[in-house]
Structures are given as structure tokens and as C-alpha cells.
């Protein structure tokens, strides 16, 4: 019982509640960690929600470690819905008031990068993939990949190029990005096209995912039938041309200190137009 | 039994398996919809995974409607982990091979917008919020909000400004964006700063979230103590100044047709530098 909070009322009775902390939006958060039988949990949950309703609480969050999968069903039976899940836990939520639910939504977007790496012979670093939609199509494409949790875009671009082709690069700027919907698992998708400067030139392709890799004359890339068909390929070719002619400015990262927790974040902006000077901020 | 697939082996025995379809990456997807007892499910799941292992399958996905919360525990007991959840379902996953797991990760980013709306008196549309980190701070900030599932960035910006202030706007371009980590529920965050042209000027603030709204001289916004302290406020002020002087170009949306399913997506690029002409694509 040591994990349970006790609320004494009138000095006579007490109601056992689930351990909870208040959030900043008038709700409570329950983080279940120790094992508990599903019937005990259901009883405590019912009493707790009733008490929180009396207190005028709004959203009730329950974070269940995967070891407590036996508590998912009783929570759902009490009216909870899923909010999000990570490999090791499931977050459920219940909105108590009759008013409109203002609970924040789950992470909605997957984020990917594509890397434009041009050498000084007007050649573009391209790969053929072993799986996915371009498998066995013979199409040459720029290295792409998913931005991992907590990974900065510019780091993801450097990492993916290195992993797929062995080429070391220096990130320069975001040239463009695409927002798509109903992609993987019906989630939305943001795909950032990154300009990279090569620091090495000898290709060593990755075996697992990459069928082939090469430096390809830009014209050949642009002339592929698929480049003509798929607008995104066409714009990548256009962006390459514009960059080679020195005509195009994208958004480059500036390191700034986060307002609330002193951690760093990165602001990507058109630093040519804004005239950002290195003494005005933590420059990238 | 009609929902179950049967595999006949040697013409003698058959093994009942869970209903599954193949994915494009050597795995299988099980979508459970009808009710099933947890013990029957556990038995079928064990037999199915065994069969899929024999067939050399890789990832096994199980999508459980929330009405089947009783099946979460047996799946976890068979070694499944959570992949992601939406209000009405939970996706679990199991990687069969001994090789490194190449399953795609969950949506990792929440996406938000902030809207810069300037009138021709050099005044910025600003609000004070009733909740959140700026509650009771007296700080005036630009309207911000979360991009909803399947919502285009430019639509989200127009919607949030209208909801919070009643002002109609026309989206112009993305001026900059910030990537932060370990934000809400430890997820990463992309925050897009949008330039909007006002189409109306009479403010009608929203009651639920907004304490006050006004057109504020840009200098007053920039001179707020918090603007000095928080770099993101400072850069928003700098971007306003640059835009008013006509010196800054961001990224504007072009509608392009998605390569695989003929749906639309939007590519945001520096259309001034790329010289995008309206006959070269589906112009925004």
C-alpha cells in the first residue's frame, strides 16, 4: 500500500487513490510502475477518477509500463482511450469534464531527410536501394533516411550519407522541404532536402540497404525517366542546378538556447537575407 | 473460424493462424477486429509466429482495435513490444530474425506553427494566453498552435490566427523553423514561423485560450523584456523587420503530385531564387 496515496476526509474515512501528480493544465498524471492486479487497479482507478471529478480535474493521464499490460483492459473499460505508445510504455487518457477536450495530440509527423552531395565535377552522389518503393526499378536517387528521435536534421543528413555511401560531408543548408499526408501508418511526413559539401570522395556502400552507389553526372540524374515523372526528383535536379550556379539560398541552422530549460535548439533561417552575424547568437 | 487462415501441411494436418497480410518488407500485418478470447488468441499467436519464423518472415505487426484491449497482455507475453498508438488502436510489433531490427520507427515529431501577421502600420498581431508557460506573465506573443493530423502547414497557420483572433489571413511563406528535442512527452518538435498577410483587421478573440489580443507596434513587441531574454522572440522580431524592409525570402509552397498514389503534397522552397514559373508545376 505504500505506493498509494491516501486522502483523509472528515477525519473518519479515507479513500485510496492511485499515485498521481498534477500537470500544468488542470489534470493529473498517473505513472504506474510496480505490479498490480487488474481488479485492484480497476477499483482504485474508479475511486480515483471519482475523486478527481469532484476536485474539478480535467485530463487524466495513465502511463503504463509494458510490464503492466494486464492493466490496459481495466483502464479501457473505465473509459480511457490510447494517447500514444513507445516500445516500453502505453499512455492512456481520459477527459473528465463535459467541455470540449483540449488535450494535446500525439506526435503526428515522421521526419526524413534527403541529401544533395555535389562534387566539383557537377556529379551528384546517388544510390540504388535494396528495398522499398524503388527496389528493382533501376532508379538512382539521392541518399535519404529517417531522422531519429532526438536527432538534429543536419546530423541526420550527415549520418545517412556516411552510412549509405561512406562519404563524409559537411551540412550547409535546408534547400526545401515537403509535407505529405497519409504516409507510413497514415501519419504525416516532413521530408527535408539538405545541401551537403563532400569532405571525402571514395564511395564505400552499405551492404544491408544499398544495392549500388556512385557519383553521377547531374544531367544523367535529371534525364532518368522517373525524374521526369516524379516532381520531387525534378525539383531536386532543379535545386542542384541552381546551387551550382550560386543562385539559391535555403535555410541554415543557428543554435539558440531554449526559452525554458536552457537546452539548445536550432533555428533554420535564410541567414544571407537576415544578415545574421556570428556575435548576435550562438552560431552554428 | 471464418476469420482465420488455414495452412494445410502434408495434406494431413492444418495449423490455424491469425489472419495476416504480407507487407513490402518481408513482414506480416495482423489486423484484429472481431472479439476473441485472450487464451484462444495466445494459442493462435504462438502457432502463427512459429509458422512465420519457418517462412523466414521478419517483422510481425499486430493492430489491435481498442475494443480488443484484452489481447494486449497475451501479445506482450509472447514478446511483442508497443510500436505506436492512436485513440482507437494499439500497434504492437515483434522482430523475428536474429539480425538487426530494421523496423521503421514511430512518428517522432510534433509540429507547430507561429504566425507573423503585420498590418501596414508596422503593427504585429499578438495575443496573451490563458494557459501554458506564458500564462500570467503578461507577455505578448504571436499566435501559435499545433498542426493537426493531415493538416497542411499553411492551413494550420490560417486556422490558428482565425481561431485565436478572428483575423482572416493569406499565407505567404515559411520564414524559418526551429527543431527542439525532449519537449512534450519527450518528443521532438518542429516549429514553423509563417508570414501571413491580413485580410481583415477587427479582432475578435477566442475566449477559451486567449486572455487578450491586439495589434501592437513592432517596436513594443521587440522591447518586451522576454523578447530580449528568449532568442526565438528576438528572431521573430528580426524577421518582422526584415520582411517590412522587403529584404527577406523564405520558403513558399508549391503543390506537387505525390510519386506513388497521385495524392497532393506541398514542396516549400525559395521560389524567388529558383524562378519557379506557374506553368512548370501545380502552383500554389
Automatic annotation (TrEMBL), chains A, B:
This is Nudix hydrolase domain-containing protein. Belongs to the Nudix hydrolase family. Keywords: Hydrolase, Metal-binding. InterPro entries: NUDIX_hydrolase-like_dom_sf (IPR015797), Nudix_hydrolase6-like (IPR003293), NUDIX_hydrolase_CS (IPR020084), NUDIX_hydrolase_dom (IPR000086), Pre-Nudix (IPR040618). PROSITE patterns: NUDIX, NUDIX_BOX. GO terms for molecular function: ADP-ribose diphosphatase activity; metal ion binding; NAD binding; NADH pyrophosphatase activity. Pfam families: NUDIX, Nudix_hydro. Gene3D superfamilies: 3.40.630.30, Nucleoside Triphosphate Pyrophosphohydrolase. Residues 108-240 form the Nudix hydrolase domain. The keyword Hydrolase applies. Transmembrane segments: none annotated.
